[in-house]
Design goal:
Shape: globular
CATH superfamily of the largest domain: QueA-like
Number of helices: 7
Structural class: alpha/beta
Order of helices and strands: EEEEEEEEEEHHEHEEHEHEEHHE
Largest sheet: 9 strands, mixed
Strand order of the largest sheet: 2-1-17-16-14-3-12-13-15
């Protein structure tokens, strides 16, 4: 398939620049992956879509304030976006500047942090922080929240709460698992009270999630690698759900990628490590039956993933419906509830 098979035109005013007033106040487009049938709902109706034996799988990663501004020794301005924490002093990061800094160069970030460039690994730079504390503490003190590039404004106080899920625990993401942003504590409690089971995986979302597909033949695209954790507890809950005839419902494409990465052998197995799984039409899903997801960028790998899940034609029709109905798109936008195409 070609990259342009996943292209659509989006009016810029439909890109959500701010979160809704309340987490559950967003809209929810329900897509049946088999028939292509659509239903316009509110996210507050989410519980109505669940069945007693369903299992919800959330991604509990926590976004770190990974963006740092500063200057090189020469005085040139520089922007650092941490992609991954390697240990208590070292990170891999993207660097934006007029000229890339060489190995051994010193950067001064946020007027306080001295950072040495240790080397370069393709598009990423290995950096060492000259600090007594560890990197996570330094980022928490000096870093800025890394809002996606299509949100064209500065971070404000509202983002510090709303660009984080209410169940975030495991520190390490530089972008939020945005389908989870629609859940508040009240809705989570209502789900528990309903008897629907819930569990958590971890996938630390990297900045690569915003990288465009540059090749025409999507089969030759190389995905970025991300760290995941799928425990035996999760695997056993998936198996039990299958035995009871329930559905495994992934909250977000990151949960889909984590579950399907752990199922590459054909059966789900506990896994801790890296994944670069690329899901596009033709992929056979092994663990996920339904999903909650936001609307994704044109020609993106995430649009290809949901097209594999519900069929490209159904997804593209749903997106045209969403545009016509003035849904809000991307990280702070509205959501979809999609059931998998099984026919």
């Amino acid at each position: 398939m070609q990259r342009t098979d996943f292209q659509f035109e989006l009016p810029p005013e439909l890109i959500a620049q701010y979160p809704s007033k309340h987490r559950t106040a967003s809209r929810l487009l329900n897509l049946d992956g088999n028939s292509g049938a659509l239903m316009d709902r509110q996210f507050s109706d989410f519980l109505d879509l669940l069945k007693p034996n369903d299992l919800l799988v959330f991604n509990n990663t926590k976004v770190i304030p990974a963006r740092l501004l500063g200057e090189k020794e020469t005085g040139g301005k520089i922007e650092v976006l941490v992609e991954r924490v390697l240990d208590d002093k070292r990170v891999l990061a993207h660097i934006r500047s007029s000229k890339s800094p060489g190995t051994g160069r010193i950067l001064l970030l946020e007027s306080e942090l001295r950072v040495e460039v240790l080397g370069r690994h393709n598009a990423l730079f290995e950096l060492r922080f000259d600090i007594e504390s560890d990197v996570i503490e330094a980022l928490e003190q000096y870093g800025r929240l890394p809002l996606p590039p299509y949100i064209e404004r500065e971070v404000d106080k509202r983002d510090l709460e709303r660009y984080q899920t209410v169940y975030a625990k495991q520190v390490g993401a530089v972008a939020a698992p945005t389908a989870g942003l629609h859940f508040d504590n009240e809705l989570m409690q209502r789900i528990r009270d309903s008897g629907v089971d819930m569990t958590e995986v971890t996938l630390h979302v990297g900045a690569g999630t915003f990288q465009p597909v540059r090749v025409e033949d999507i089969r030759t695209h190389q995905m970025h690698s991300e760290r995941i954790e799928v425990s035996e507890t999760v695997c056993e809950k998936v198996r039990q759900t299958r035995e009871k005839g329930g559905r495994v419902i992934a909250i977000g494409t990151t949960s889909v990628r984590a579950l399907e990465s752990a199922s590459r052998s054909g059966e789900i197995e506990a896994y801790s490590g890296e994944t670069d799984i690329f899901i596009y039409p033709g992929y056979q899903f092994r663990s996920v039956d339904a999903m909650v997801t936001n609307f994704h960028l044109s020609e993106s790998t995430l649009l290809m993933l949901v097209s594999a899940f519900a069929g490209r034609d159904h997804i593209m029709s749903a997106y045209q419906h969403a545009i016509k109905q003035r849904y809000r798109f991307f990280s702070y936008g509205d959501a979809m509830f999609i059931t998998r195409k099984t026919a």
